[in-house]
Amino acid sequence: MKKPITSQKLFARAVQALPGGVDSPVRAFQAVGGSPLFIRRASGATIEDVDGNRFTDYVMSWGPLIHGHAPRGLVRAVAAAARRGTSFGAPSPLEVELAERVRALVPSMARVRFVSSGTEATMSAIRVARAFTGRDKIVKFEGCYHGHADAFLAKAGSGATTLGVPTSPGVAGAVAADTLLARYNDLASVEALCDAQAASVAAIIVEPIAGNMGVVAPAEGFLHGLRALASRDGIVLIFDEVISGFRASAGGAQAVFGIAADLTCLGKIIGGGLPVGAYGGRADIMDMVAPSGPVYQAGTLSGNPVAMTAGLWALKRLTPALYKDLARRGSTLAAGLAQAAREARVPLQVNAFGSLLTPFFTSSPVRDYDSALTANTRAYAAFFSGMLARGIYPPPSQFEAWFLSAAHSDRDVKKTVEASRGAMRDVARQM
Ligand code: HOZ
Fold it and tell me: Hey, what long-range contacts does 357-360 have (CB within 8 A, 24 or more apart)?
C-alpha cells in the first residue's frame, strides 16, 4: 500500500470544514487509528483511494450495495432518469412501482411511505405508533441502532458505541425518559417492562438481526416472543430492517423467521446506493399518516425519481440464486477468518448471517450488547491495519457488519482469507 499522503492532506483540510473531518462518525477511523482514506472511485467489489491504493471492500457503503459498486445497468438507468428530471416535488409513476414491489416482497407492508434515510423512517414510525396507540414510551434494545433521532440515542450501537458515547448528550431528559431499554435476545427483560408499563408503551422497536453492535442473530424464539408480547399488550411491533431488509432474504428477516411486523423500516438496499428510506406496515396504522390521517410527515426529496429508479433496479435483481451465492461466500469467509485466528492463537468469534458477518475479538460467544463489548477493540484495530496493508478494506470499527455483494468473487474471498492470516499474526504479535 502506498503512503496515503493525498488522503492525509485532504483530511487536514476536512477537519477545518467538517466536524471531525467527516459527515458520519465511524468513517473517521478514530476507533482503529490513523486517518481516513478518501475514496475517488469504486467498481464491483473494489474501491480506490485518492493515492491510487485499491482495496477489496467489505464496507460497501454500509450495506446498500448488494449488487456491488456502480453496476453498469444501474448507472445507465440512473443517468437516464436524471435526464428526465432530478426532482419533481410531485408524484411520479416510479414511486408507485417501487411501493408495489416493496409490498410484494414484504407483505406486512400494506402501505409504504418513502423518505430519504433510515433515520427518517424510524423516527416517523415511532411517531405514527405513538399516535395510533395514544401512548408515549418505546422499548428499544441495548446495542441496537435506529439512526440518530433523539429517542434512539440510548445505549445505541454503531458509531455511538464505536466512539464510546452510546447515550448522547443533547437529548432532552424528557425524551430520554420515554425510551425504555431491554436486552437483545433476552425476552424476560422485555416482559418485565411490559408487565410494569404496558399501558404506556407505544412500540417495541428492534433490529430483527442486529447489525450495529456487530452482527448478532436473534436467538430461537426471541422474535416470536416479541410478536406475542406486542400483540398481547396492544403494542406496535416495529422491525428496523434497514440492514436486514432485502439482505437476510428478499423478504427481509421477517420472511426468514415467519413473523409479520406491524411496521417495518427500510433503508440502504431499497435505494440501490442512493438516499432512500421507507416505513410502512398495517393499513390501519399507516392510514394515520398525512394526508390520509393527522400524523404529519413530509419531505422535499421523498420519492425522488432518480433514487426510486436506483431502488427499482436493485430490487428487481434480488433472485434466489443471488442469496444462495452470497450465503455460500459469507460462510466461506466466516470459516476462513475463524481458521486464520485459530492458527495465530487469537481469540475470535465470527457471527455470520448470509452476506453479513462480524469477527469479534473475544473468546465469549456474542449474543447481546454486553457480550459484544467484551471484544478487544485494540486487537480489532491491529487486525484492521493489517488487512488494509494487504489490500482489504474492512469496516473501521469492531461494532459494525461486514457486507458481501454479488460482485465479490470466490477469488476475492480467498484473497481476503489469505490476507487475514497475516493480519491475525500481526494481532498476535501486538497483543
Ligand atoms: N451508521 C452507519 C453504520 N451502521 C454508518 C454510516 C456511514 O458512516 O456512512
Answer: 357/215, 357/330, 357/333, 357/401, 357/402, 357/404, 358/214, 358/215, 358/398, 358/399, 358/400, 358/401, 358/402, 359/334, 359/383, 359/402, 360/214, 360/398
Protein residues whose CB sits closer than 6 Å to any atom of ligand 1: 24, 26-27, 62, 158-159, 212, 400
Interval between CA 213 and ligand 1 midpoint (Å):
12
Q: Tell me the per-residue pLDDT of 203-241, one tens digit each, with 9 for 90 and over.
A: 999 999 999 999 999 999 999 999 999 999 999 999 999
Active-site residue, 240 included: yes
- Is 268 tagged catalytic? yes
Instruction: Report how far ligand 1's centroid is from the alpha carbon of 267 (Å).
Output: 12
Domains delineated in the chain: 5-66+319-430 (3.90.1150.10), 72-315 (3.40.640.10)
| φ/ψ (deg, to 5) at 403 | -120, 125
pTM over 0.85: yes
